[in-house]
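Subject: sequence -> structure tokens, single chain

Hey, anyone have a minute? Need the predicted structure for the following. Not urgent.
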Amino acid sequence: MSEATSRPAPWRRARLVFAVIIPFVVFLLPESPADGSAGLSGAGPITLLPPLFAISLAFATARTVLPLFGGVWMGATMLALREGHGVSSVFQGVKDTLVKYVFHTSVYAPASGEATDGSFQTFNLAVIGFVFVLVGMVSITIRAGGMAGIAERFVVLARSARATRLSAFGLGMVVFFDDYANTLIVGGAMRPLADRMRIAREKLAWIVDSTAAPVAGLSILSTWIAFEISQFAPHLGHPALGLSESAGYAIFIQSIPYRFYCILTLVFVFWVCLTSRDFGPMLTAEQRSFRTGAVLRPGSVPMSSHGGVNHSHKEGIPLYAHVALLPIAVTLVAIIGLFLRHGEAGHAQHLASGLSIEHMREVLAGVSGVADGADANTRLLFYGSVMGWFTAALLAVGRRLLSVREVLAATLSGSRAMSIAVTVLLLAWAMSAVCGDLGTREYMASMAPLIPPQLLPAGLFFLACAVSFATGSSWSTMGILLPIVIGLAATVGAGSVLGAQGMVIVTIGAVLDGSIFGDHCSPISDTTILSSTAVGSDHMDHVKTQVPYAVTVMLVAFLAGYLPAGTGFPVVFSLAIGAGALVSIVVLLGRRADHY
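Reply:
Had a minute. Here:
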């Protein structure tokens, strides 16, 4: 998403070394145990070259869009070579990338076989529409003062340094529908009060950053959910699973307890804010701020205003919290109502189950008898977000907070801010399609006999951490890894204590959470940069103080979560042990800033 910031020369050299080495991994991997296939014509290790090339470019360029495009182009070029295009395969690869794998995969599929007409890709278009409309709704509520109205209610509670930190955490939990909006609203609202309470800017940036992506990533109504589901739902038809694409929503909900890093991060942030204890570089920053009143390190360079969503409300208007709360409520109620109606239209017997969890699970899983369950469920998200947008627009205009022109301008501002994110989304779908044509997933599945089931979730968690750190983007990491590991997880899990579906659920949680961890630690991450910007912190100071905390939670999530999860250890016990470990670490290592 965001582009690179400056980094020390030694890191740049190390990054380039990794970039050169990564593609050569294909020569170290074994051929497919099933048939020994290799080369461009078989499902051998060479089929991993597109995602490896994307990761290599990410290390070399510290960009997001270019590596994904390069990976898709590499795959399209390899397929053109298979078809005998020769030297022109390089140019054919560019054409196929743009036309076949971006436009046809995401927008309009041409006629094929006996079909006489093409068809629009309704699932993908609904996902894109949901993201744009929901962000447009958020932009209207911000500009109309609704989010500021919510923030005011939290600020009133902040009468001490501890209360201010807890208020920032609470506000971060409330703004659950988008990580960008979360970062800008919480950072902008809490910065003046945090300065007055002598809270270090680094500390506020960490609170903001650590409640943005984890909350949006876990939320069942956010700009993230449609993207996350779209990356693994099309691959749930694996023979070992026996699921349909429409089961994506149910699988996502079942994976939430296995989002160890996100859940434990929120526990850790709450406990640190409550106890006022810190350790490592964060303790040094808090002691400096408490003792001297210098919320910024002397000589630091605070981040300046960042483009994107306009996070300030219109001057001179009253601030009403319901201008934001009502559109959100309408969106939630509309989506739930549409889901229920959709399910009951398929099976009348579901009426008796009402709002039971089992009923919702069946509706979300697409067992309502509707053939296009996945497309229909995604369209329901889109319709619900449209209702929320209309509610926000009507409130803003009806209460004379914004004019019609200003409502449209706010909507377009939100759309522009998401343009890079949607580009990543399109390229992620393209990467999935080209890997499918190459046989990447088949090769990964063929490696199942060589992989211990107990170690698969933990291994994929670490892999996602590394890729996300290199790219600075959780979305691109999900787009690279999820499409090629679902089949592997299903095959490995089929012979394990978890079963195929259980292993897929845990694996999805591991990849999604590893993506967010790397995003937290990477200096080139969009939300990390945006957090520094929103609170006016020196960016590298924010990174240096946040990394020890993020690594602490990651190690606990790995040891207490993903390692035992691969053996079938109960998830409730894992979460309890992980939370207890983090509480103990803060108590044993942490010190209050006012304790000299």
